[in-house]
Amino acid sequence: MKKVIVTGITGQDGSYLAEILLKKGYQVHGIIRRSSSFNTARIDHLYNDKAILNKKLFLHYGDLVDTSNLNRLLEKIEPDEIYNLAAQSHVKVSFEIPDYTAQVDALGTLRFLDAIREVGLKQVKFYQASTSELYGKVREVPQDENTPFYPRSPYGVAKLYGYWIIVNYREAYDIFACNGILFNHESPRRGETFVTRKITRAAGRIIAGLQQKLTLGNLDAKRDWGFAPEYCEGMWRILNHKNAEDFVLATGETHTVREFTENAFTNIGIELEWKGERENEKGIIKKIDLTVAENLVESEKDKFNYKLKNTLKIGDEIIGIDPNYYRPTEVDLLIGNPAKAEKELNWKTKTKFEDLVLLMVKADLAKILKRGF
Ligand code: NAP
Ligand code: GDD
């Protein structure tokens, strides 16, 4: 049985990757950090499975800012593959905590690579969660493996260090280390403060009568959004390619935050109309049909404890802008070219933008009607 270490196993990607690796027959060792309340919600379905926990899935405390236990874990586990997904992953937050972001996202990667060298694990393969944020103020459209980088946040700069230290250790010490330069990927497990999930959750809460308004920042930023589980399969393909190389994973399509918002609200029966400009812009209800939301989750209604209960009407202002959500420097446009991954890894996204929005809205609405919040 091959052994693998996954850092960031409690995150969106870590949870999907753990499922994929367990299905492929790996023994999975996840690194979790101590928290004052439970932080394993995304992997509880694995954690609570007696056939899996401590048989195929093992959890260890650790933190990328603490070198002391990395060597011990590597010596004890002797992994065949390592997926380094742990990060302070929020771009806006990185402007507030740039030092910590660099400690985890930049130096954390170095600490891990150096521990591999210290312990002398010659055969181990190392995946680094690199990002389309490296392209920042983009130098070409679309972006691929040869596009120059120009990061626009402390997060992007820290991840750029991570990118180059992977390349350096590959060349200097012959470590099988690869960067997956992943464009945005989303799912019902996405953290609630990233824009997609913030929107789909708010759409559900507004139609359920639990929230009056959604407040956003820059509506015109463009992102290449895909479905997270497909990208986690891509991570495995990158590490199981014959050579240690870097790959872009993307859909090749781009959409604005505004389009994402319009789509999400259409899925719950609300057609939006925009009025005003910049921070005075507002999203107003132009048309509303409550049966759309009811029909969306009809097949799950037996599990619901709550009903849709709202007083929404045409003309209600349900979206506003708060400049606090603007970033000091923004990444305006991301669109990836995944041709290398398609050709060499036989990897391709399947879930289209509209289907991604739909599945996220549906999951949030069902969750809200089950739990009541
Ligand atoms: P996420 O949901 O924010 O998960 C981040 C994970 O890292 C969590 O498990 C978190 O633990 C853990 N973590 C944070 N700081 C840590 C530390 N100091 N030591 C150990 N663990 C720590 O992120 P994601 O969306 O799954 O992304 C996974 C990785 O891919 C990240 O490195 C991210 O930067 C990168 N990436 C993501 C995307 C995307 O669109 N999702 C695109 C490109 C690259 P807690 O649960 O305890 O907070
Ligand atoms: N979070 C957030 N909240 N973003 C908003 C909001 C808001 O209220 N309103 C508008 N946006 C805009 C941001 O300004 C940005 O242009 C875009 O929505 C996407 O923001 P996020 O969802 O926070 O993601 P991100 O693109 O900054 O970063 C994500 O993708 C990167 C890959 O390109 C993260 O997952 C990073 O970890 C990842 O590397």
Walk me through this protein's architecture.
It is a single chain. With 373 residues, the chain is α/β, with parallel strands linked by helices. Helices cover 38% and strands 18% of the residues. Helix 1 crosses helix 8. The structure holds NADP nicotinamide-adenine-dinucleotide phosphate and guanosine-5'-diphosphate-alpha-D-mannose. Residues 89, 91-92, 131-133, 183-184, 193-196, 198, 216-218, 221, 223, 257, 325, 327, 330-331, 334 line the site of guanosine-5'-diphosphate-alpha-D-mannose.
Backbone structural class: alpha/beta
- CATH homologous superfamily classification of the largest domain: NAD(P)-binding Rossmann-like Domain
Give unreliable regions as ranges.
none
Q: What Rg, in angstroms, do the CA atoms define?
A: 21 Å
**Main sheet, how many strands, which sense, barrel?**
7 strands, parallel
The CATH class of the largest domain, by name, is Alpha Beta
Architecture per CATH nomenclature, i.e. the level-2 architecture of the largest domain: 3-Layer(aba) Sandwich
Order of secondary-structure elements: EHEHEHEHHEHEEHEEEHEEHEEHEHH
| Strand content range | 15-25%
Distance between the termini: 42 Å
**Whole-number count of domains:** 2
CATH topology of the largest domain: Rossmann fold
Strand order of the largest sheet: 3-2-1-4-5-6-11
Bound molecules: NADP nicotinamide-adenine-dinucleotide phosphate, guanosine-5'-diphosphate-alpha-D-mannose
What is the strand tally?
15
| Average residue pLDDT | 97
Number of helices: 12
Give the topology, please.
Layout: E1 3-7, H1 12-23, E2 27-32, H2 44-47, E3 57-61, H3 68-77, E4 81-84, H4 91-96, H5 98-119, E5 125-131, H6 154-173, E6 176-182, E7 185-186, H7 195-207, E8 214-216, E9 222-223, E10 226-227, H8 228-239, E11 247-249, E12 255-256, H9 257-267, E13 270-275, E14 282-288, H10 290-296, E15 317-321, H11 339-344, H12 353-371
Parallel strand pairs: 1-2, 1-4, 2-3, 4-5, 5-6, 6-11, 7-10, 8-15
Antiparallel strand pairs: 9-12, 13-14, 14-15
Helix pairs in contact: 1-8, 3-5, 5-6, 7-9, 7-12, 9-12
The structure holds NADP nicotinamide-adenine-dinucleotide phosphate (NAP) and guanosine-5'-diphosphate-alpha-D-mannose (GDD).
Guanosine-5'-diphosphate-alpha-D-mannose binds at residues 89, 91-92, 131-133, 183-184, 193-196, 198, 216-218, 221, 223, 257, 325, 327, 330-331, 334.
